[in-house]
Design a protein that fits this description.
The protein has 189 residues and is an alpha/beta fold. It has one domain (2-182): Vaccinia Virus protein VP39 (Rossmann fold, 3-Layer(aba) Sandwich), CATH 3.40.50.150. The chain is built from six helices and six strands. The longest helix is centred in the N-terminal third of the chain and has 22 residues, at 18-39.
Length: 189
Amino acid sequence: MMIAVCTAILERFLAPWPLAVHVYNQYYQGLVNRELRLTKISSADRVLCIGGGPVPGTALEIVAQTGANVDVLDCDPTAVRLARRVVSRHKCKGKVQIFRANGCDFDLSQYTLVHIARQAQPQSEILNHAWRNLPRGARIILRPPRRDLHDLYTCLTNRCWHINCILRNHNCLATHSSILLSKPLDADA
């Protein structure tokens, strides 16, 4: 939880400074690139990022690398205000929308991929909501808190009869920092 608080403070400080945002977003390029290879996002996808924060780096990087339309949720009004300002100065501004909303009850019916940020809380409830409410064939990319990976493995193992794992190593762990879940296309899965 401490990392989430520090990240929020850092992003609030950086948000007014375009050059600082640009440098900060360099961190997301490689991470998002690895996630894009796993999820195969294209410009036809409709993506939702839950937990965007004041600097929605993941959303901006997804748009920059794929051209997909991305909506971003955050429940913090200050983060939403700052994120809208960051997006308004970015070349991807027409492709990213920022909403103040809760990831535990947001309508997910129009999305083909949901990205759940590491700092999005409560992560297990957000994951459960996404799994229950996304359409068939949709994907979820999750950045779990590193300290809680063991608990998440247990959660995923208990769900694996539901989950079509894209990569089968380590019970759905796709990379060292992200987990990819894919809802089956058929109703029997």
